[in-house]
Model the fold of this input.
Amino acid sequence: SLNFNPVVGYRINEVFALAAGVQVQYFDVKLTQAISPFPGAPSAELKGDDVGLGFTAGVLITPGPDTEIGIGFRSGIKHSVDGSLTIPAVAQIPVSVEPSLPAMVSASFRQRITQEFTLLGTAEWTNWSDFGTFPVTNDLTGAPATYLPFEYDDGWFFSLGGEYAFTNGWTVRGGVGWEISPVSDQV
Done:
């Protein structure tokens, strides 16, 4: 996927700033799956693309000169992918599928500890549980040709880091992140 996300922001006062934007996402998918468990068997291929729309919004809270708190939202994007399902030497079927990519909410902070050192942190939730099973519809018959069974759980990401300013022109940044995967052992 390719995302284009222009954003406009406005500082209300010294404490609050707001921002909003439009997401334009180009989604190009190519999935292959074996049609038989036997070695050398051909694979079915699903190909298609789409452009979907969504939005982003955020608020920056600056309660003091050394503290910033950011809260952001990125909407889910629903796609309507028209393409084809090709089974080599058998058929090429026009199909469509409507996957929905998940919404995300993030909260971050930036806290200056000393003139040189700043502490940074983020927590992010992604609504991957919306990314369930999607029927791939045969456009000739209107019946499902197959299914795309993802069945993800919600995802979480946490990070903690810092930046150290050696001089006005040189800053070193580093940190660690931990992600709770949306893909379960069953999937």
